[in-house]
Design a protein that fits this description.
binds zinc ion, globular, binds pyridoxal-5'-phosphate, alpha/beta
Length: 399
């Protein structure tokens, strides 16, 4: 067999491209993208030739990663909450314990590693807040300049993080979608383009690839917790993973990780993945229900990290949900805030509202899951990231 080689594959047309600096969307499908709509032609990192060895196959060698120990976050058992909801087990994958306090560090670490290997000096991105604070954190540790475009209304904790980590913040008077356009203008400027890299979610394929690490960890950690033994490879049917979903990049990354595990022969099938959205930002839920994306709708939800008008990874997310018989739910803010408080008070895990959307989705369907189901909620961000709404929910003034 040929040695392992990493390439990019277009998720729309299947064409292969070198995994190299300056490549974002498929050159043929990408330009069909309509502004403020889900992206066409998202590339996926795949290997050719011999299967990569090691715990998690990634397209950048370990020595390039920032020295921050990203991933391997605690899988917390929540037996009190499970009993209260009448289910045998519940686990919370606590990415609030990441260096910058959110799941985004998985993607930012891979992007930073690639930038270091390729001699790129500056990373640029648009963010609702967490991607910005995360990339700023990784940039600080790795010695990379970071420029972020963030809605001026993003939660203050996330903006403080950006500045603490020493990044350049450009506040945008408008939504994430406007920040997204502005960041692309900046990174595609012909003078800057050769030495900067965009970390915009889904647009840079390494953001999805970096997020897949959680699937590898879940399989290992659940095996320790549940001792599958000889049944390990058959665990796919029992696993239900609840994923907070805005742009759909985490969803695609989780799927990619499980697809890799199946390809490597470590798992029999891709688990049931639940795309969990807010009523006020439910494009992927609606697309799965209706069989495609309609006009984008302005988002309005307390869960700022999953508030997007047009989900950037929507087309790929929908394709994966359809292919693997995934599920989707949309929850009102009231249920999201109630779920946030329940996870805090019954499991000791204080998560931000976006993560609580996944918690709320689980609470809604818990009783209908098969009796041997192993549910995992991705607690993607710390509750301390946005205390305003959480403060109100416990009867404290906002400031
Ligand atoms: C970004 C983010 C999400 C949503 O991820 P998408 O890739 O946009 O679907 C969920 N939770 C947290 C904490 C996030 O920062
Ligand atoms: Zn293509």
């Amino acid at each position: 067999m040929n040695p392992t080689k990493w390439v990019y594959a277009c998720s729309s047309c299947g064409k292969l491209f070198p995994l190299e600096k300056g490549r974002y969307l498929c050159p043929e499908c990408g330009p069909k993208s309509i502004p403020a709509r889900p992206l066409e032609g998202i590339l996926e990192a795949v290997w050719e030739g011999e299967a990569p060895t090691g715990r998690v196959p990634l397209p950048v060698e370990a020595k390039w990663f920032p020295p921050l120990a990203v991933g391997n976050t605690p899988l917390r058992a929540a037996p009190r909450l499970a009993a209260e909801l009448g289910v045998p087990a519940l686990y919370l994958k606590d990415d609030g314990a990441e260096p910058s306090g959110s799941f985004k560090d998985r993607a930012s670490a891979l992007v930073a590693a690639f930038a270091r290997r390729e001699g790129i000096g500056e990373i640029v991105l648009a963010s609702t807040g967490n991607a910005a604070s995360s990339m700023s954190c990784m940039g600080a540790a790795a010695g990379l300049a970071v420029t972020v475009f963030v809605p001026a209304k993003a939660p203050v904790a996330k903006r403080v993080q950006v500045l603490q980590y020493g990044a350049t913040m450009i506040p945008v008077d408008g939504s994430y979608d406007l920040a997204y356009e502005k960041s692309l203008e900046y990174s595609l400027d012909p003078v800057r383009a050769p030495r900067v890299m965009s970390r915009n979610t889904a647009y840079n394929p390494l953001t999805i690839e970096g997020k897949k690490t959680v699937a590898f960890e879940l399989l290992e950690e659940l095996e320790l917790a549940e001792s599958f033994g000889a049944g390990k490879k058959a665990a796919g049917a029992r696993l239900h993973v609840f994923v907070p979903t805005g742009d759909g990049a985490i969803l695609c990354g989780v799927y990619k990780g499980f697809e890799d595990l199946v390809r490597l022969g470590r798992l029999d099938r891709v688990p049931t993945i639940w795309a969990c959205q807010a009523d006020g930002s439910s494009a992927i839920f609606r697309a799965l229900r209706d069989g495609g994306f309609g006009e984008s709708v302005p988002s309005d939800t307390v869960a700022d990290s999953i508030a997007v008008d047009a989900p950037r990874a929507g087309i790929l997310a929908l394709k994966k949900l359809q292919h693997h018989a995934g599920r989707a739910l949309a929850l009102p803010d009231s249920e999201i805030l109630a779920a946030q408080r329940l996870a805090s008070s019954r499991a000791g895990v204080f998560m931000e509202p976006s993560s609580a959307a996944a918690m709320a989705a689980f609470i809604r369907v818990a009783k209908d899951l098969p009796p041997d189901a192993l549910p995992v909620v991705l607690a993607t961000g710390s509750g301390l990231k946005d205390v305003r709404s959480a403060a109100r929910a416990v009867g404290l003034g906002a400031d």
